[in-house]
Amino acid sequence: MGANQSIRLKSSRKQYQSCQRKNSRGSQDSGDSNVDLNLVTSNGRIFLKNSNNEYLLAVDDIEADRLHKRHHTQWHVWKSHFSSPVKTLLNLGNMNVLDVGCGPATWLMDMATEYPQSHFTGVDIVPLYPADRMPDNLTFIQANVMEDLPFEDGSFDYIYVNDLLAYFPGKCCKEQIFPDLLRLLKPGGWLEITEYERKLYETGPNTEFLMDKLSTVFHNRGASGIPVYEILPDLFQNDDDLIEFRREDKFVKYCDFQLTISEFTYVFSTLKNMILEFTSMNSAKYDEILSCACKELLKHKTSFHVTRFYAQKRTKELQLI
Ligand SMILES: C[S@@+](CC[C@H](N)C(=O)[O-])C[C@H]1O[C@@H](n2cnc3c(N)ncnc32)[C@H](O)[C@@H]1O
């Protein structure tokens, strides 16, 4: 990253937000955490730069705003907050729900409000959650999914993960993150993972060009090889602890959801410096390609694929059947 400032933090929320304030608008503070973050600023945006964490998107208030907006688009696409058959249990109450890589906790805030009798926990490596307006049944823990999460085995009835695993190498998902999620799940509980395919359909040349550069960014940040989206069905189906594997797929056309075009622009603007680092293009040329690509999304009716994968953890009784 060009003219960067590297900030190493034994990160409490307070320290993280002091970094936010230097870069954007900042906010309130709260407790400490043991997560050791190495934050890097580039063009006024904050990125993670841990030796063992190559998450490529920004982790700041601007990103939180994007994730809030995307949550609403997702609602229009799915018309539901989840696909696992847990609604009755959530209504009955006393369900322990975990959202891993919860970002600004938008999904959690909706869920905690809709199901006040159940308890919700959000985990993220950075504290993007709104500490000043958390419902009583919602807790946030700052932790790194590349390590075992700080909960006892079988702590949760339902684990939800949205748009997280694709940023990690397949090997890491297979050997660390997925097994740890299963460890945390109670027998009989449900695991639901939503991921986006890293591929667009019906694309124009500028869009293809940018998608190709995106693959290089993933490769450079250690997430090369078979994309996680493609290995997830095998992970679910080949695990002896899981039964009732299901998937729900949506093809989303950019032209049907204006916000998805802003999202495309946002993601490729965020990645601009990373892409310029390994191409001979100048900044103005990049902006022109991005602007043309956005027009192509409408013209070609470009679409993308998003899938909810979910399954239930086997109980001893279910093992006997
Ligand atoms: C694309 S965002 C999705 C956030 C949220 N699930 C949503 O759909 O709005 C991915 C999130 O993963 C978090 N993240 C990245 N690396 C992580 C790690 N190693 N451990 C925990 N969270 C991580 C980021 O901070 C970010 O909030």
What layout of secondary structure does this protein have?
Elements: E1 5-10, H1 13-23, E2 36-42, E3 45-48, H2 61-78, H3 87-92, E4 96-100, H4 106-114, E5 119-124, E6 138-142, E7 156-162, H5 170-184, E8 185-201, H6 205-220, H7 228-237, E9 242-253, H8 258-270, H9 272-277, H10 283-299, E10 303-313, H11 316-320
Parallel strand pairs: 4-5, 4-7, 5-6, 7-8
Antiparallel strand pairs: 1-2, 2-3, 8-10, 9-10
Helix pairs in contact: 2-8, 6-10, 8-10
The structure holds S-adenosylmethionine.
Tell me about this structure.
The protein is α/β, with parallel strands linked by helices. It has one domain: Vaccinia Virus protein VP39 (Rossmann fold, 3-Layer(aba) Sandwich), CATH 3.40.50. It has 11 helices and 10 strands. The protein has helices at residues 13-23, 61-78, 87-92, 106-114, 170-184, 205-220, 228-237, 258-270, 272-277, 283-299, 316-320, and strands spanning 5-10, 36-42, 45-48, 96-100, 119-124, 138-142, 156-162, 185-201, 242-253, 303-313. The strands form 2 sheets. Strands 6-5-4-7-8-10-9 form a 7-stranded mixed sheet, sandwiched between helices. The protein has a 3-stranded antiparallel sheet with strand order 1-2-3, covered by helices on one side. Helix 2 runs antiparallel to helix 8 and helix 6 (205-220) crosses helix 10 (283-299). The chain starts with a strand and ends with a helix. S-adenosylmethionine is lined by residues 53, 55, 57, 59, 67, 71, 101-103, 106, 124-126, 128, 144-146, 162-164. One of its GO terms (molecular function) is methyltransferase activity. Residues 97-189 form the Methyltransferase domain.
